[in-house]
Batch of 3 targets.
Target 1
Amino acid sequence: MTPSTPKQIPLPLGLRNEPSFTNFISGPNREAATAVEGLAGGVGDRVLYLWGEHGTGKSHLLRAACQRATQQDRAAIYLSCRMPDLIEKNRDEYAHAALVCIDDIDILAGNREKETGIFHLYNLLETKGGGLLVAGVKTPTGAGFSLRDLGSRLTAALVLRLHPLDEDGKRRALQCRAREIGFTLSDEVINFLLRRCNRDMPSLFSLLDRIDEATLVEKRRATIPFVRELLEQM
């Protein structure tokens, strides 16, 4: 019996596609990307608040800012409010960072105890001269913070909205991600994906990762027939 050809095991995606300013397709969000890049480098506004619907690149920019600050030997921390206890537990330690990035702050809105923890962290960073980058789906005034002092501080920050990419921007983003994770995605396949699949960027990126993994395992190219076959199996 002829032994079957061993299937290639793909590398974890985190090792191949870290968010950075280089792989952020700014599109209509150039002003926000420039402001975040400045904050990461220690210039410009000290407190920046990004808002916009899911999939507009908020988390990408926060992680890119941490990467850039770290590359410049500036301590940076990324925190998600999906794990609020971690923020409270290590608040004093975080206050010594040059940059703290807080994602999904809407999740804490209305929880006065958790909001108070963020407010104390804000004050500690202000005292020590650290930068603060915050992201949420809604504006500071629309998020529904119960702690008035926190809402007023964030409203006074530089508040910038992130907008969804247009179709051309989505094509560029898909091409960029495909290059970074190491495979070629033709214009025909991209058009096929944009016609047939959910068009929000998280869904498209997740699908692209599945296609990449499948091409490695099956040792096949990412053609329209192959992608159609994969979609039928999902």
Target 2
Amino acid sequence: MRALRRWTTVLVVVAGLAMLALLLWGWARRNPQDVPWAPLDLGQPVGMFTGRKLTALTQDRPQCLGLLDRAGIRYTALPARSDGTQCGYDDAVRFTVGGARAIGYRPATLGVSCPVAASLALWEWDAVQPAARDLLGSEVVAVDHLGSYNCRRISGRSTSDWSEHARANAVDITGFRLNDGRRISVLRDWKDQGAKGQFLRRVRDRACDLFATTLSPDYNAAHADHFHLDQAYRGPMGWRACR
């Protein structure tokens, strides 16, 4: 009798584990953005591992360009550039008009690494436009920026590590232009307690889910007028910065 009860218990446990495995498998099939091994798809909702998958694109240029193509993002691939041993890029793109994206960049000459471009597109779809519609009753038509590529070290100090700007793997965002003519400025509106400030803080928070590094006016005085967004690769489970 004891042996029968023992085997019954074993069978119940095994059946329970099998059911749990089946449920987890089904959940993973329905939520690929939340499992680390599922391929990245820019058409999927942003999930727990989306940001890390975007950062990992720094190691796979063909995959990154393929993702842009499949998502309907129009771009021009920029010629490779080398400025010494620490500066340059071979995966930079420039957004072009049309396709799945609606937001322009001012100046329009912005060129960024492919992973940053993919992240900016997701940021537009997942954060910027929804926040603008929800909080401002309008849509963003253009983003103001300070550029991307700049062959320099962090903070310009000669002893600092090289900046992600040195590889066009970062972009500095200064503001947003709405289709009703209003302009939202990081410098002017960050501390605003109304809709403009709420919008800026919401899109900053969502950027933290997508970029390896997100720095805002909350970080230091050097970022009082812009968001610094980059895709610094620090390993598969490397640290991420959100300030």
Target 3
Amino acid sequence: MTILAFDTCFGAVSVAVCLPGIVGTTPLIVEAFEPMAKGHAERLLPMIAGTLAEADIGYVDVTRLAVTLGPGGFTGLRAGIAAVRGLALATGLPVVGMSSLAVMARGAVRELGHLGTTQSLAVIVDARRDEVYLQLFTADGQTELGAAQLATLEQAVNLLPAGDVVAVGSGAAFVVAMAGRNDVVVELSNLLPRASDLVAVAAQLQPLMQVTPNYLRAADAKVQTANVLPRMA
């Protein structure tokens, strides 16, 4: 199975292609990763084209698409969802998806290795406005212990589980400092989702009937409904 995966949820655009290896060998993953605060929509398709070219394949060779479903910044997340919908419509390929925080959990375990006596892993991302996106996982990063949530800093403190915890992500230090707990260790404050971590498990995911973003928060910009001038005929 040849899988194209990408993420645009936070401060980067990440694209990965997984190429099937010879039986008994590890599949080859080709990845592109560019940190950016904005411009996700403009960079995504060129990065996809570049990654496919580096893998020496075209869209015709891809058999499955994978995307992060959020949470994340509204504009970036929307760019990824729009792209995967468009590609699926054009190619007829199935789409699978995963929480951006679940992808980060897998990335944390990949970077940190075995977490020792840690009982759980908390992925906490700064959502601004004194809020965070938070999701809890088993220490191996494989099993979700609840859905992703948007929480205030105070709520996040109360959501931290008992026992030894490793907290990762840009919001981890804020929450752990407020909690004042010695059994919570902060790691990887700059952690972001990597498409390579998504594409590595995408073959195991069930195709989505509908690709729906998980914003967790309404967009800052809203359609004006009051004092709107009537359209001219």
